[in-house]
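Annotators were shown the component list below and the corresponding predicted structure, then asked to write short factual statements about the assembly.
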Amino acid sequence: MNMNKNKKEEFIKKKFGKKQPFRVPDGYFDDFSGRLMARLAAQNKPVPMVCSLSSRRRAARKHFIWRASLIAASILAAVFSLNLIFSRKDARPVQTAQKPAQSITVDQAADYAMMDNEDIYTDLVEGNNH
Amino acid sequence: MNKDDIEILRLLGSPSTFKKGFERLVQVYNKPLYWKVRRIVLVHEDTDDVLQNTFLKIWSKLSQFQGKSNLSTWIYRIAINEALDFLRHKKSAAGISTDEDQMVANRLLADDYFDGGRAEALLREAIALLPEVQRTVFNLRYYDNMKYSEMSQILNTSEGALKASYHLAVQKITRFLKLND
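Structure shown to annotators:
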C-alpha cells in the first residue's frame, strides 16, 4: 500500500513538481502591512492584553507543576487504596484463625485456675487491702 | 520556538510595544500565510480578503494565546479555518453545484494571476474537489512539507487519520488526472 502511495505521489511530482502557478500583483507584499495597519487604525481596535513571554512560561511551568502534583496525588491515592484493600483481605483469615485460639486460651486458663468471677473479685479486694 | 517568534512575543507582551510587535508578526507571517490561503481559495482577491481578516482575528485573539503550541501553529490554524470558512460561505451564498466545481480549471485559466496551463489548472481542480480535510492535508504536506505532528495540532485530528487522508488525497488526485489526461 505504501509503495502504491509513493508511486502515485511520484506521478504527481514528476508531472508538476512543487511549483505554484500563482502570481501576485507587483508590490503586493510590500503594501500589505501598511494597508492592514490602516484598516486596524480605522476600526480603532483596542490593544489586547497579551501575557509577556516570561509570564507565559511561568504559567506553563505552573500548569506543569499542577498537573504533575495531580498525577502524583492520584498515584498515592491509588497505592493507599490498594494497600487498604489488600491489608483488609490479608487480615480477615488471620482474625478468624486467632479468635478461636484466644478464646481457647482464656477458657483453658480459667479451667486450670478453677476460678470464677467471685474468686477474681475477692482476690482484687484483698490485693487492694494489702 | 524560533527567534522571530520570541522577539514578536516579547514586543507583544508590553502595551507600549504591542503595535511594533504586531507589525513584525505581519511582516514575518504574511507570505507563508498568503500561500497557504491561496492554495485553498485559489483567487488572489479572495486570498487578500481572507488574509486581512485572518490578521484582524489574530489581533483580537492574541490575548487568548497561551503558548501551548508554537505561535506559528496557532497562526496557521486561524488562517486555515478562515480560508475554509470563506469557501463554505461562498458555496452556500452562491449555491455552487458540482457542475460549477468542475469549472475551477476554466476559471483559473481565465485568471490574470494564474500562470499555469491546462494541466496545472486540472491539478488545482482535482485538489479543489477533495473534501476539506484531505485538501488541507495535501496542500500542507505536498507543498509545505509540514510534519504530521504539527498538522495534527492545526487540524485537531490524529496523525494516523491525517496520514490516511493524505493517502486518499494522492489516490483521488492521480485518478482524476489520469481520467482527464
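Statements collected:
1. Residues 1-96 of chain B form a domain with the Rna Polymerase Sigma Factor; Chain: A fold (CATH 1.10.1740.10).
2. DSSP finds ten helices and no strands in chain B.
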